[in-house]
Amino acid sequence: MSHTPHLYDYVVIGGGTAGSVIASRLTENPDVTVAVIEGGPSDVGRDDVLILRRWMGLLGGDLDYDYPTVEQPRGNSHIRHSRARVLGGCSSHNTLISFKPLPSDWDEWEQAGAKGWGAVPMEAYFARLKNNIVSVDEKDRNAIARDFVDAAQAALGVPRVEGFNKKPFTEGAGFFDLAYHPETNKRSSASVAYLHPVLDERPNLTILLETWAYRLEITEGRAEGVHVRTKDGEELLIRARSEVVLCAGAVDSPRLLLHSGIGPRADLEELGIPVVHDLPGVGENLLDHPESVIVWETHGPIPENSAMDSDAGLFVRRDPENPGPDLMFHFYQIPFTDNPERLGYERPRHGVSMTPNIPKPKSRGRLYLTSADPEVKPALDFRYFTDEDDYDARTLVDGIRIAREIAKAEPLAGWLGREVCPGPEITGDEELSEYARKVAHTVYHPAGTCKMGAADDELAVVDLELRIRGLEGIRIADASVFPTMTAVNPMIGVLMVGERAVDLIGGGAR
Ligand SMILES: Cc1cc2nc3c(=O)[nH]c(=O)nc-3n(C[C@H](O)[C@H](O)[C@H](O)COP(=O)(O)OP(=O)(O)OC[C@H]3O[C@@H](n4cnc5c(N)ncnc54)[C@H](O)[C@@H]3O)c2cc1C
């Protein structure tokens, strides 16, 4: 163990989506020093990362932590949860679909105990984002995706939306907003927007790349810093004069806490991890957006142009009592048969897919350790489709039926040949549910495992200022603090949490 004094004002663990925002903003003040501990390499100059349309090539590769799920008796046990191991985190390998969370999403957080995080106070943080958020460019609008939007409108009577972030919506079809630069197809990820412009000009910002944080140093209830292992295997203690800010994401933030003895006492004791702070909510409330898929063969090849092969989508509100949408679809200009192939379906040469997902799923999962060894991946039990009234599975069945209605409508119908999966013969509730669950996939949105909540909520991990309850000198800011899932894709919500965290920490040049 080295005894070199590595001392900074703030230590940010994870240079990902939220971590990039926080490190960039805090170092706007030249008198503040920040160290970022990032498990992955830099994304600078790497076209495999920076070109948005190459995102699928990153899944399961060298830059992916690639977390398995534990067996899912009601769902698909084969889902691999991609989590990026690179500067910018998941914003460097995701599809950058950019939705400002709906007012009803933030208001639901308040109702869940996150007082002060409602739609009105959160609005200002969207305007602060530095990412280049624009609608899918005209040149990237594929003819079949345009026809999907028209067909959805015709079949369902939903409005066409041009700019989903312009005003709150409950339903509608349209091209997404993306955080990208259309002229080059380059990402406007958290690292590109927040870190690249300042990397060479801020001596107060230190980024330790390919360095893994494996245990927090807590002394008498205060976070003093974090133990890390560098790329060369050197073990260091990186110390924080003011605060540690944990931004390792919904999987790795609770994982690091548990390995540091912060979590449910009985679980820690069973693994022989010395209990530093009994905090029962760590790893609970594991949320996600599960999705299913329906695939059609097309009569011929599909035009090539696209931003990232899933540029348009649809929101539906089946229950008018809901404050927001309760069913969402991505439209893929490719046959997305990875999961159906396991059941024996074939990948057509040319095809398209609709992936219905559950904006507000009711099943709740749990993340836990199976070993005291920090190298062993944590167990992710999403408990997919286990909610009592079967709402989640029924939502996907509705989704498949609605997708078929759209496929019958022109101008989309003229493109489509046979329905490859589940296949037109699968029509009953039971068989559709069985299919939808067995081929279910994730939209890759794990969240909620260190949730923010009120003082009387014993499962809350952080308070309303994102401080870990019962400890000093440490906050969490990433997708793990979400008390409930946003109806829309969560990345913009994560960036906004990052911007707000800076205000709460009291840093930045503002
Ligand atoms: C394939 C994919 C597609 C997606 N598409 C979209 C989309 O289009 N729109 C959308 O809104 N959302 C999308 N998401 C979800 C969205 O990207 C995430 O919710 C969001 O980026 C999470 O941000 P975060 O800050 O919580 O974590 P991350 O961005 O994952 O950041 C965590 C960082 O911490 C680092 N790290 C973790 N543990 C350690 C450790 N112990 N030591 C050192 N470093 C560590 C990681 O390397 C990483 O850089 C997608 C996700 C995936 C995986």
TrEMBL record:
Q: What is this protein called?
A: GMC family oxidoreductase N-terminal domain-containing protein
| Superkingdom, taxonomy of origin | Bacteria
Question: Hey, which family's this protein in?
Answer: Belongs to the GMC oxidoreductase family.
The Glucose-methanol-choline oxidoreductase N-terminal domain sits at 249-263
Q: Cross-referenced SUPFAM superfamilies, in alphabetical order?
A: FAD-linked reductases, C-terminal domain (SSF54373), FAD/NAD(P)-binding domain (SSF51905)
Q: Which Gene3D superfamilies match?
A: 3.30.410.40, FAD/NAD(P)-binding domain
